[in-house]
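Lab meeting notes turned into a lecture example. A postdoc, R.K., suggested we walk through two folding results consecutively so the class can see how the record format repeats. The first protein's sequence and structure tokens come next.
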Amino acid sequence: MSLKPDEIRKMTQEERENRLNELRLELMKMVMQAHVGTIDNPGKIRPLRKTIARIMTIQTEEKRKGEKK
């Protein structure tokens, strides 16, 4: 489930966007399940948030790297 930074950097911008949207949707479903009380493993939410943060961080790095050139 969690992606390593090297794996994320190897992705194209479009792949990162698609993966980010998938992960956000999955997170939203898991959070709703947690609020209702039907989630099987609430421990999966935290790694999901961290993966989303990693993707967003790398996107920002790539954007700033492009602005400097």
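The second example is placed directly after the first for contrast:
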Amino acid sequence: MTDTPDAQPLLRVVTPDTTPEEVAAIVAVFAALGGDEAPARPARSQWAHPGRAARRTLPHGQGGWRASGLPR
């Protein structure tokens, strides 16, 4: 629960004819909605990475033309 004794309750039942099963159902729904954790960010595609816009220097020297076609 909470550590402070004067904290307000998170849930208050205002109708007197509410059954314990109904209270348990609404508590289960609220518990399933989640809490304080932030939603996970989707993984960023490497295709859209800004580093792809910067052109890399081409290999030069002996065999440079062959190395330019090789994967990085």
